[in-house]
Amino acid sequence: MKKFFKGKKKFLLVATLMMVLLTGCSVPRDQKTGKTYINSIITIKEETVQKKNVSFEPGSKEEKQYKDLKPEDTITIPKTTWKDALEESWFNGLIVYPISQLINFVAGFSDGGVGIIVATILIQLIIFLFSIKSQVASQRMQALQPEMQKIQAKYAGRTDDRAKMMQAQEMQALYSKYKINPFGTILVTFIQFPVILGMYQATMRAYSVVTGSFIGIDLTKSPIEGLGDSFWYIVIFGLMIIFQLLSFKIPQWLQERRNKKNHVKEKKYAQPDKKANGMMGSMNMMMYMSTAMIAVFAINWPLAMSFYWLVGSVVRVGQNFVVHKYFMKD
């Protein structure tokens, strides 16, 4: 049992973090109408909103207070303070509220879409600064593929405990030689997961997004809902998927280009039919699965979330070029 928990401690740590974060989340959107609850909207100052653009939690005082208003009538929303958000939950106070107010602040000079763009770029920059070592390690892992394949081919077909132990030792020695922590990329997941949840909530709760748009596109509608209104909904959704894949594939392509530039010939240590079962095959499988999961969620989420993922993916593509040029040694 001790051995099991030792080997699974990183997975358990990630699972625990996810559970803690999810317990701090609330549901700010009416699942039937797709509109944000009026008492969930985060504002930077006192604002007004038309009744038809918001929803009310069943049995709430807001539902009773405004039941006689016409859809075009306006409702005044008081300024949201940090104390208000923190009293709702620690997650809203520490993550959702700052992101929402950042979007609102920038949108005050433009619109909700620009607010999301600026907020996403700043957030991705912060994540990049905290996870630069992990991203460098991730690209180095790809550079080690030939040596890793050699070790895998050496022990191919051997299932005894001694062979498994020796293979693990040689792999660990390879990581130590190049100063790589194979679990270092988990740091990026730790940082990004709460941000993704926070951004998801912020795109539904920020006043500038709930009542605003981007080049005439309603950011509160999902790609499915907006399909009949404008082709831009599918364009943004499609570009999000494309750049999400590119953000995964660019490091592989850059490494292949570096190997070609340095005249590094990759030896076929492993059989082609087994190569896909190696680490690169696993990485590709995770890439496609994660992108598919994001697509499934995003097709029914507010377009603002797809917009966030699109901008974030474009930024990560740029970060890959920066890491490759300035942090990877030939």
TrEMBL record:
Keywords, sorted A to Z? Cell membrane, Chaperone, Membrane, Protein transport, Signal, Transmembrane, Transmembrane helix, Transport
Query: Which GO CC annotations does the UniProt entry carry?
Result: plasma membrane
Q: Where does the UniProt annotation place the signal sequence?
A: 1-28
| InterPro entries the UniProt entry points to | YidC/ALB3/OXA1/COX18 (IPR001708), YidC/Oxa/ALB_C (IPR028055), YidC_ALB_C (IPR047196)
Q: Name one GO molecular function term.
A: membrane insertase activity
Question: What is an annotated GO biological process for this record, any one?
Answer: protein transport
Q: Where are the transmembrane segments?
A: 112-132, 180-200, 230-248, 285-311
The membrane topology of this protein is:
Multi-pass membrane protein
- Give its localization: Cell membrane; Membrane
Q: Where is the Membrane insertase YidC/Oxa/ALB C-terminal domain?
A: 113-325
Write down the superkingdom of origin. Answer: Bacteria
Family, according to the entry, reads as follows: Belongs to the OXA1/ALB3/YidC family.
Protein name (database record): Membrane insertase YidC/Oxa/ALB C-terminal domain-containing protein
Look up and give the organism this protein is from.
Amedibacterium intestinale
